Each structure stands twice: as structure tokens, then as C-alpha cells.
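#struct-help
A.M.: can someone run this one for me? Single chain, 317 residues.
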Amino acid sequence: MVKQILRLIIGSLLIFTCSSWGFYAHYRINRLAVFTLPQAMSTFYKNNIEYITEHAISADKRRYVDSTEAPRHFFNADHYGKNPFNAIPQHWNDAAVKYSADTIIKYGTLPWTIQYNYYRLVKAFKDHDTTSILNISANLGHYVADAHVPLHLTQNYNGQLTNQTGIHALWESRLPELFGNKYNWYAGKAQYIENPLAEAFKICRSSFKNIDTVLRFERILGKSFPEDKKYELIKHGKRIVKDYSVAYATAYQKMLKGMVQRRMRSAILAVGSYWYSAWVDAGQPDLTKLITKPLNDTEKSKIRQEETLYNNGKVSF
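D.P.: on it. C-alpha cells below:
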């Protein structure tokens, strides 16, 4: 009887989100992307690194107040067949003619959302609009990071079609939160992107290739793992919730052989590269003139320490 009651309590506390990378990952991707930038940009971005970090999740928050926001975070490529990237035109107008705009919106607009925000950032740089540069940079970073999540490229985004409900949060939140401090974070320096839309599709295609592995490995693990050891109660902020156990997450992490780390590291470089490319396309404006409140010596020292850790593949926050 006691066990039955406990199961009911645990079940009522089960919380699995199906949004984008968890807060942990988005914060770190945006923050570490700052360290990929060249000196001409990095002073401005380092000066505003707390804003860039804090607003890394603003796009997710908008989903609760803006009904048009959700499709911007995913692209259910498998709706378009077994070889979707050969079938769907990259240019929006061509895709809309072939499938209809309503269909594209229904199954996600992520690559076009990246393109749209990229050109908004170019304009913000040209206009020397500090507020817009920061807001759009944070949002663009969020969408680019989302494109690196395999489960954002499938209709089976949370394993709900294969009896694997909850895998979304396991892959993108639980694993990086548990093992992120052991990841090698160094992603190199930002590179110029010739074609922002083609690059967005390239990222999505890369994520799409990982979907089968993400789902199949968890399915195999789930069949071999004791059911009573799969979940445990953990503390999320002030709440006690049911989540995947450390043992289960550890086993899944090992099976994936560093996939989450690779996708996060790729996201860091891609975010920095999109920011850098937008700045170049805007004519490389002098961003130091946009700094209204320079960092003090203590803040500069902290950022230098973080950058040193990043260059060594580590994090300190």
C-alpha cells in the first residue's frame, strides 16, 4: 500500500519539458560563444556578457505569451520524407509554393528563423542600435543552439511515438546538467558564414542524422535497465520532481559516446560565427563606441579567468 501511494506521489511530480536545450545549456552556449569572437567584437560582447547569458532563454519564455513563437524552435524534417533535405527547397518562397506556408509553419520554421534573425542582427549593427544588437544576438544564439538538438528535427520530438516520453529532457537537460562540468568546451574561433540560410540547413541536417541514435540507444537501455532504478526524486530549484536517475543518465551518456558534448561545442562555434558574420556583413562597425558602462577591474578579471578556462576546455560557472 505504501509503495502504491509513493508511486502516485512520484507520478504526480513527474515533470519533463519538451522545449529546447535546458537553461544550463543555453546559458553556457551563449556565454562561451562570446569567447569565440575576434578582439574587435569581443570587448563589446564581454562588456555585455551577463545580458547575453541571461537572455539566452528569452525566446523560450516567449512561447508562453506568443502563440507564433513555438514553430521557430523546431523543424520536423521527417514530415517531408526519408530524405527531407533533398525534397524541401531552402528558400522560403519556393518551399511555401511546394508545401504551403501553413504546412511549413505547422512543422517548424527553425532554419528560416535563423536566417531572419541573422539579417535583423546585420541591420542592428548597421544602425549602431545597442539594445537591438544584444536582444537579437541572444535570440539568434538560442535558435542556432536549438538547431543542434536532434529531437528538434523530428515529429517524435519527445519519444511520444515510440513509448519513450521524456527523452527530450533527458538528452538536452539532464545529461548536460549532470556531466557538463566534465565536457571539453573549447570550440575554436568564430568563422565567417558565406550563406546563413544554407548553414542553418547544414546544421539541421547534421542534427537530423543523429535522431536514430538518440532514440534507438535509449530504447535499448530502457529495456535492459531495472524499471525501479530508472527514475528518482531530485530537487529542481525549490521543487522536488521525478527525473531520470543518475545511474540511468550515466549509462545513456556512455552509450552516446560524447554526442551531447559535441553538439553543444558545435553550437558554441556556430553561435559565435553567426554573430561574427553579421558584424562583417554590416561593415564591421566600431562596437567599442557602443559601450556605455565599461567593466570595472574586478569584472574584467573574472571574464579573463573564464576565457582562460574556455581556452582550456573548461567552465567555471
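A.M.: thanks! Residues 1-18 have pLDDT under 50 and may be disordered.
D.P.: also worth noting: Strands lie at 231-236, 239-244.
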